[in-house]
Specification:
Spore Coat Polysaccharide Biosynthesis Protein SpsA, Chain A, 8-stranded parallel barrel, single chain, binds sulfopyruvate, TIM Barrel, binds magnesium ion
C-alpha cells in the first residue's frame, strides 16, 4: 500500500496508533523491524545526529536528503517534522513537492516563526505565527500536493508559548478549516492535564496527535481513553544511541581494549544484516556474474615430487619456493588476478605445510597409495559451473589463463605444440585432430589421445600441460566419467590423462587450446633451477 495511504489509515484508525522517531536510514529500519507502523522524522533528532541545534541550522534540503535514505530503507510511512515549513507559503509548497518525490507520507508544521527553536528551550518566549499567515501555509501545502493522501498535520504551539487552552483551540479550529488533516497539540508540562483538556474540548473534530516526551509517566491507556489518534515517541532512539555510544567510547578509551565492550555492542554481521548485505550477494549471482560463469579452480598438489628429495622433506612439491615464492602462491596470485577466487587445493603429502592464504585445502589421506584421480575425487564437489583443473607444480605465464578463460567449450585442455616439447615430456603426449597451424584465428581442434602409444604411428601434436577447463555440460560428463572409473580396480593408479582418454572414448573429446611454451612443471632439481629463471623472466601478467 502507498505510504501516504498507510499514514492516512493510521490517522483515521479507530484505535490509538504509535509512531517512533528515527534520524537516519539505519534507525528507520530499526523502527520498522520493531513493529512500528510509522516513523517520526524528528527535527530534534535529525539535527542532533549532526551535532547542530534544532534551530533550522540543518538546511531543509539536508533534512530531505536524510529522509530519502530513511524512506528507501523502509516500507512504512514517514511523517516529517517540518518545523515551520522552512519559510513562507511558497517554501511550504516546494517542500511538499519535494517530500512527495521522496515518498514521504506527510509533514507536520508548527505555528512558530522561522528559524524556530525547540519547544523545550524557553518555549514561553517563543513568538507564534499569525493565524491567517499559518492558515495560508496550510492551504498552499494542500494545494501543492499531487497525491490526495499526502497528509499535513498542523502543530499548535499555544500551550508551549503560554497562551492557554482557549487560544490553542481557536488556532486548532482555524487550521482544521484551512485544510489540516490532523492537529498536533504540544505541551511541555510533566502532566498530561492540558493536553487531555484540549482533547476533551476538541472532541474528535479531526485526528489528534500528541508528543508525550515530558508527560511520559501518563499511562498510555489514558491516551486511548481520550481518543488520541496518534502518539509520537519523539526522540528515544537518538537518546538511546547517545547513551550507548558514550558508554562504549568511554570503556574503550579507559581500558585501551575492546574486551569489555565486545559482548555489549551489535556484531558486525548484525550491521551487514541491517544493511541488507545478503540481498546484494544474491543479486550478484543473478546479475554481476551470471550463473555458471563464475570460475573456480581445483589444484592437485598431493604429491611429494619423486626426485626432489630433501627439498620436500617437510613440504609438498607445490610449496617449494621458486625465487622466494612457492609455486602454489604464484599460481593463486595468477588466479586471483583474473577473478578466480574460489580455489581448492587437494593436498596429500605434508598437506599441513600448505599455508597459502586464500584457498581451501582438502586432503587425500591415501595420497601415498593413490594417484591423481583419487585426489580429484576428493574435490569433485568443488567442481562448479566453471572450473579449472590444474596440476600444483605448474608455472605459467598469465596470458595462458586469459585465453583459456575466453574459450566457450565445455571441456578444454591446454596443449603445448612447441618444438621439442614432446621429447621433454614423454608422459603427457597429446594427439589431436589437427596440428597447431599457428594461425591467429582459433582452430577447431579436439584431443584424440593423451599418452600411450599414439595413433597410427603419427608423431604427437604436442604435450598436455596439466591444465584444463570444465564448464556447462562438461561438468556432468566429467562426473559420469569419474563414476565409471571409480569402479575400476586400478582406480587408485589412474591419472588425469586416463580421465581425459575416457572422456574421448565416450564422445566427449576436450577441445584443444594450443600454446607454445611459456610454462613449465617441476619434476626434479634441474627443473627447479630452470624455474628460478622462468620466474625471473616472467613479466606480469
Ligand atoms: C521533534 O522531535 O523535533 C519535535 C518534538 O518537534 S519536540 O522535540 O518534543 O518538540
Ligand atoms: Mg521538532
Amino acid at each position: 500500500m502507498k505510504k501516504t495511504r498507510q499514514f492516512r489509515d493510521l490517522l483515521s484508525s479507530s484505535q490509538t496508533e504509535f509512531i517512533m522517531e528515527a534520524h537516519n536510514g539505519l534507525a528507520a529500519r530499526i523502527v520498522e523491524e520493531a513493529g512500528f507502523k510509522g516513523i517520526w522524522g524528528s527535527g530534534l533528532a535529525l539535527s542532533a545526529q549532526h551535532a547542530v541545534r534544532d534551530n533550522n541550522e540543518l538546511s531543509w534540503t539536508q533534512v530531505v536528503d536524510t529522509l530519502e535514505f530513511m524512506s528507501d530503507a523502509t516500507s512504512i510511512p514517514i511523517l516529517l517534522d517540518g518545523d515551520t515549513g522552512y519559510g513562507d507559503f511558497n517554501n511550504m509548497r516546494r517542500l511538499v513537492h519535494k517530500l512527495e518525490q521522496r515518498d514521504i507520507a506527510g509533514v507536520c508544521i508548527e505555528d512558530k516563526l522561522f528559524p524556530k527553536t525547540n519547544s523545550f528551550i524557553q518555549g514561553e518566549k517563543q513568538e507564534l505565527e499569525d493565524v491567517a499567515t499559518f492558515c495560508g501555509k496550510i492551504q498552499a501545502g494542500k494545494d501543492a500536493q499531487s497525491d490526495d493522501d499526502f497528509s499535513i498535520v498542523a502543530r499548535v504551539e499555544a500551550l508551549i508559548a503560554g497562551w492557554g487552552l482557549e487560544e490553542a483551540l481557536r488556532r486548532a479550529e482555524a487550521y482544521r478549516v484551512a485544510g489540516a488533516d490532523a492537529i498536533l497539540i504540544h505541551s511541555k508540562k510533566s502532566s498530561a492535564d492540558e493536553v487531555l483538556a484540549f482533547a476533551r474540548e476538541w472532541d474528535d473534530r479531526c485526528p489528534l496527535v500528541i508528543v508525550p516526551t515530558k508527560y511520559y509517566a501518563t499511562p498510555t491507556e489514558v491516551f486511548r481513553r481520550h481518543r488520541i489518534s496518534l502518539v509520537i515517541w519523539a526522540n528515544h532512539l537518538v537518546r538511546s544511541s547517545i547513551r550507548a555510544m558514550q558508554a562504549t567510547a568511554r570503556a574503550i578509551h579507559d581500558t585501551e581494549s575492546l574486551l569489555e565492550v565486545e559482548g555489549r555492542v551489535a556484531t558486525v554481521s548484525e550491521i551487514f544484516r541491517l544493511q541488507g548485505a545478503d540481498e546484494l550477494i544474491e543479486a550478484e549471482k543473478r546479475y554481476a556474474r551470471p550463473a555458471g560463469r563464475e570460475t573456480s579452480a581445483v589444484v592437485l598438489a598431493a604429491s611429494r615430487g619423486r626426485d626432489l628429495d630433501e627439498l620436500t622433506t617437510d613440504r609438498p612439491k607445490a610449496m617449494i619456493p621458486v625465487a622466494g615464492t612457492s609455486v602454489l602462491r604464484r599460481m593463486v596470485d595468477r588466479f586471483k588476478r583474473v577473478g578466480i577466487n574460489e580455489i581448492t587445493v587437494v593436498g596429500g603429502y605434508r598437506a599441513d605445510a600448505i599455508d597459502v592464504a586464500g584457498l581451501d585445502v582438502v586432503v587425500n589421506e591415501g595420497w601415498e597409495a593413490s594417484d591423481e584421480l583419487a585426489s580429484l575425487d576428493r574435490a569433485l564437489d568443488r567442481i562448479g559451473g566453471d572450473t579449472l583443473i590444474v596440476y600444483g607444480d605448474l608455472l605459467f605465464r598469465g596470458y595462458i589463463l586469459d585465453i583459456l578463460l575466453e574459450r566457450e567449450g565445455d571441456l578444454v585442455a591446454v596443449v603445448d605444440s612447441s618444438e621439442g616439447v614432446a621429447s621433454d615430456n614423454a608422459t603427457d603426449l597429446a594427439w589431436c585432430s589437427a596440428p597447431d597451424n599457428r594461425s591467429v584465428y582459433r582452430q577447431e581442434v579436439v584431443l584424440q589421445q593423451l599418452g600411450g602409444h599414439g595413433i597410427d604411428g603419427r608423431p604427437p601434436d604436442g604435450c598436455w600441460v596439466g591444465m584444463m577447463r570444465v564448464r556447462g555440460e562438461g561438468r556432468a560428463q566429467l562426473r559420469d566419467a569419474m563414476e565409471r572409473l571409480r569402479e575400476r580396480p586400478d582406480f587408485d593408479r589412474l591419472g588425469i590423462p586416463d580421465l581425459i582418454n575416457h572422456l574421448i572414448e565416450h564422445g566427449h573429446a576436450p577441445e584443444v587450446q594450443y600454446i607454445s611454451g611459456h610454462w613449465m612443471d617441476i619434476n626434479d632439481v634441474h627443473d627447479l633451477s630452470r624455474a628460478g629463471d622462468f620466474a625471473h623472466h616472467e613479466m606480469a601478467p
